[in-house]
Amino acid sequence: MLMQTHEARLDALKQELKRRELDGFIIPISDEHMSEYVGAYAQRLEWLTGFGGSAGSAAVLLNTAAIFVDGRYTVQVRDQVDEKLFEYRSVPKDTIGGWIADHAGQGAKIGYDAWLHSRAWVNTVSAQAAKVGAELVPVDGNPLDAVWQDQPEPSDAVAMIQTDEHTGRSSAEKRAEIADWLKAEGHDAAVISALDSVAWLLNIRGSDIAHTPVALSYVVAHADGTAELFIGSEKVTPELSQHLGNAVTIRERGTFADALGTMAGKKVAVDPNYAVAGIAQALEAGGATVSFERDPTILPRAIKNPVEQQGHRDAQARDGVAVSRFLRWIEETAPSGEVDELAAAAKLLEFRRELGNLKDISFDTISAAAGHAALPHYKVDEDSNIPIPPSSIFLCDSGGQYPAGTTDITRTVWVGPGEPTTEMKDRFTRVLKGHIQIDRAIFPQGTCGGQLDAFARQYLWEAGVDYAHGTGHGVGSFLSVHEGPQRIAKLGGGQPGADEELFAGMILSNEPGYYKAGEFGIRIENLILTVQQDIEGAEGEYLGFECLTFVPIDRTLVEETLLTADEINWWNDYHAKVWDILSPQMDGEDLAWLEKHCAPL
User: Fold this and answer.
1) Are residues 194 and 274 in contact, defined by beta-carbon separation less than 8 angstroms?
2) Nearest-CA neighbor of 50 among 77, 24, 25?
3) Which of 55, 93, 127, 449 would bridge 488 by S-S if both were Cys, CB 3.0 to 4.6 A apart?
4) How many Å apart are CA 358 and CA 397, to the nearest integer?
5) 169: Cβ–Cβ under 8 A, 6 or more apart, which residues?
6) What is the spatial distance between Cα 353 and Cα 330, in angstroms, rounded to a whole number?
7) Which residues constitute the domain of residue 317?
8) Nearest-angstrom CA–CA distance, 395 and 409
9) Residue 116 and residue 225 share a domain
10) Cross-referenced Gene3D superfamilies, in alphabetical order (predicted)?
11) Same domain membership, residue 176 and residue 141
């Protein structure tokens, strides 16, 4: 009989730990590639606890358990996880290692799956556990998998070719660049374990993780430009083999760990952030020397070439039509009170599909009405779904996966009848002013995203308010909607990437926001491309941004008296571009709606 309750699942895990003579076990949201989003087979934390967020961990001891989430999920974890089974802990204030030190006794053996955690995590938690005489030990086979009776199998979907028409560079060129880096650094090989890195390097895509077009696989790239691809044979078509060519050897994914053990005497680069601890352990056990270095594909992947840049422009122009049609539909139908959050998300998907060429959405649509809009990472489901109330704010954060590029856009709109409150208009306009400051920023080469972050927050700070998430993240080319290394976020705020230098060709989101708990939320998000600036008399190289996203912003929520003349000019220029890009693709009532919403302030 399948275990239906989380209490039964937790008890079964504890019994399995006893059988293995373990006193505890750590369960992260992770897979063997340290992916942000994971396949259904790797949703171990959700199966055990009921928590459906995208970041979190649990620690289970034989007599107690805790779940660890950050501030984005404070409300969600309490809605989804039974506090009688798991105590709630908040990161970064609380850590798993600290909790274990407080709750595990002398001699306790705490298990972990070395293929789900980074080496740094293992070292940190081991040190904290050792302070009280406890020991962190790798398990042979995940004990949770042993009790998860109906655990899904990993996806067996075939891998796809991403043509040079969209990549702008062949896989051979990319491998040669990585080989040059390996030789310059004195390495024999690099393990490429992040799924989007594998996809970028070999110009392949897949459908193994929802909304992220990657195939479950690993690559070992060698200093002579050759590579080994470890992937399930069921995923490999004759066309894929031909695309990869003779320089790429295809091996079964299940042989990866054993293959690492055959690299005795080799110096192998491993990314400490994206390679699980099991990779380094297997290499070292086989006699290889591990050098912890950043994945050499990350920076070239982030700096989009001209073909990828144009692909993003094309994808955004197509996506903008779908989102604009959706906003018209919301404006006309939601005031009835008969449209709910799930129906809105479904309608937006319908508009995107109608335009053709959509491969997937780029993440679960955040369709958030009223107080739900105050949850930055709200995910609507059958249990949380509510009608969009008339006379309220509706926030929709969504994106599409197109062969030419990945989109991500947030629009916040007023749903009539009536008018938004003075407070709503004030907060929306302050968010808009910050958004404009990022869009218009000019900065010297060498600047990092963290140095720009305050541009977006300054007008909110003047009112004594702020938002708890970053201002911008990188975006892939028909890859992950969250792509590093760059980020616009507070320096020292615990968000990796804020100190990364920005380079021309990098794509970022521009998404300041404001959230009033239980009442409403506001976010305005466009994607922006980092570009060179031609400044007469400039002393050194300067950069700025080109906006990629063109969809009307809701003027109902704007308090014009808070805008400067320059900001009004920005608004009018932006909407003139929206008209120029979208109007040739629209007609009839859609075109009339667009014309109305692109009129100057």
Assistant:
1) yes
2) 77
3) 449
4) 17
5) 305, 307
6) 17
7) 303-592
8) 11
9) no
10) Creatinase/methionine aminopeptidase superfamily, Creatinase/prolidase N-terminal domain
11) no
Residues 73, 57: Cα–Cα separation, whole Å: 12
261 lies in a domain? Answer: yes
Please give the single-letter amino acid code of residue 3: M
- Asked whether residue 552 is assigned to any structural domain, the reply reads yes
Q: In the sheet where 366-369 sits, what is the strand order?
A: 366-369, 392-398, 409-415
Of 229, 261, 294, the one marking the end of a domain is 294
How much is the pTM? 0.94
Identify whether the C-beta of residue 264 lies closer than 8 Å to the C-beta of residue 286.
yes
> What are the structure tokens assigned to 148, written together?
């998860």
Do 262 and 307 lie in one domain? The reply is no
CATH number for position 136: 3.40.350.10
- Please give the Cα distance from 532 to 416 (Å, whole number): 42
Paired tokens of 256 = 């990866």
Summarised one tens digit per residue, pLDDT across range 2-44 is 668 999 999 999 999 999 999 999 999 999 999 988 999 999 9
Rounded Cα gap, residues 551 and 502, in angstroms: 26
Rounded to whole angstroms, how far apart are CA atoms 548 and 51?
Answer: 35
- Please, what is the angle between helix 449-462 and helix 422-439, to 10°? 160
Closest CA to 313 of 405, 398, 393, 235: 405
For 126-181, what is each residue's pLDDT tens digit? 999 999 999 999 999 999 999 999 999 999 999 999 999 999 999 999 999 999 99
Please identify, among 294, 311, 340, the residue that sits at the C-terminal boundary of a domain.
294
Residue 394's DSSP bridge partners are: 369, 413
Q: Smallest Cα–Cα separation from 547: which of 348, 352, 309?
A: 309
Distant-in-sequence, close-in-space partners of 170: CB < 8 Å, separation ≥ 6: 164, 203
**Residue 155 in domain:** no
Tell me the CATH number at 531: 3.90.230.10
